[in-house]
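Review form for a predicted model. The reviewer records the input and the model, then writes brief findings.
Reviewer: anonymous (R2)
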Amino acid sequence: PSSMSSVNDDHDHLLNRSVSRSGSFVEVEVSAALSKRLENEVQANFALKEQIRYLTETIQQLHIDLDNKKTVIENLTRRISIGALPTTDNNSTRTRNLKHSHVNASQLQLLMQETTLQNSMLRKDLETMGNALQDANKQINALQTNKKNKN
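Model under review:
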């Protein structure tokens, strides 16, 4: 019986050592998993911040482009409304103007067609930039919402 007791004691001792080893192994595994998760979260957060920065810069550039195109449209509209379109014979006499009125009319018509085409292209560009701006704002809002939800 004493040898059985000794065997049981040895077995209990080994079992206790095994449990303490597995306990520290679990702690190490949990710690490693938490560290990995934290690292992934930090990387994801950094990536989101970089994407927000990029989208913000893109929006700022779109605003600048939009303002420039608005200015071009305003200037063209002003020139047309005040009649400051370039003509070929600004200092000619009235008789000469009458002789060349058909030339001026066709030049004005061409200029008006060109201006109309430019305005149309600018409107399309403005619409495209507006859509891009809205999309970028939606992406920023979604990223910020995702970031808040994760925190």
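Findings: Helices lie at 2-82, 94-99, 101-150.
Further findings: The CA atoms of residues 56 and 63 lie 11 Å apart.
Recommendation: see findings above.
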